[in-house]
Amino acid sequence: DGTATSTEKYEGICRHDIVVGNILGEGFFGEVHDGIYTSPTGDKICVAIKTCKDCSADVKEKFLSEADLMKNLDHPNIVRLIGVIEVDPVWIVMELYEHGELGNYLVKQQYNLTTATLILYCVQICKALAYLEGLNMVHRDIAVRNVLVASPKCVKLGDFGLSRYIDEQEYYKASVSRLPIKWMAPESINFRRFTTASDVWMFGVCIWEIFSMAQQPFFWLENGQVINQLESGVRLHKPQLCPPTIYSLLTRCWAYEPHGRPSFSQLFCLLGDIHRMELEQEQCP
Ligand code: ADP
Questions:
Q1: Of the candidates 10, 27, 154, 197, which lies 20 to 30 Å from 79 by C-alpha distance?
Q2: How far is the centre of ligand 1, averaged over its atoms, from the C-alpha of 32 (Å)?
Q3: DSSP state, 89?
Q4: Which of 34, 74, 141, 167 does the annotation list as catalytic?
């Protein structure tokens, strides 16, 4: 049983094995710090520590729900949970990715990144999402702000704060209002309906962000105007740096009907082919 294994796997972590360092940023629930964790075997691991400012019972439950989901995930392109400290002050301890958020990294490194590298990021995020697709998990917040850069050739999908398990053929009906409208599929905006197919739409928007060097999708619109545009057939334009082969995949991810969109496993194969062709071109132009 997966739950039992994950409990055993994470029970070892103690607060006094962690040295807290500087503030990395402000999370939704509280500050995020860097730090060093000494594992029971004596290894020193650089970590990111998420803290929770207001730790009343219901806030604490919401805060820890992200870690609960992450306990069951094990993938090279997903942020790795190290452990959780469940007594006050509550901490979620994750592996540290020193290059930070992909969005900021794209802005800083825009003149050093080749098209093949940008496609590689898409392939890696897609691989993580194909893995979630196999677990019937919807992420619901796929965007470059939620992808961390582990090394120049490796990115990790993070921020499972909005993720949910869904039963097959089921969907998650969201109640919260803190939703990323400009990234969302029409059925998510209209009916708060979230499925793997709506994650595919969001992944398309995330690829658009990657090739736009982290511009905000629909920055020229108010949130309230987005759904009318989508319903009249308007879609994000092809970013200058985006290869036409990739843009044609994006238009399929943005099919109005959820059933018209490809799956993540299909996208992974198609993106992999495009990546290989681009690498060959860059190596022998
Ligand atoms: P929340 O999801 O609660 O809003 P975030 O995940 O956005 O919090 O984290 C806040 C800040 O901490 C962000 O700037 C993010 O880049 C940084 N951060 C979070 N996790 C890590 C990590 N594992 N490695 C490096 N930086 C991280």
A1: 197
A2: 6
A3: S
A4: 141
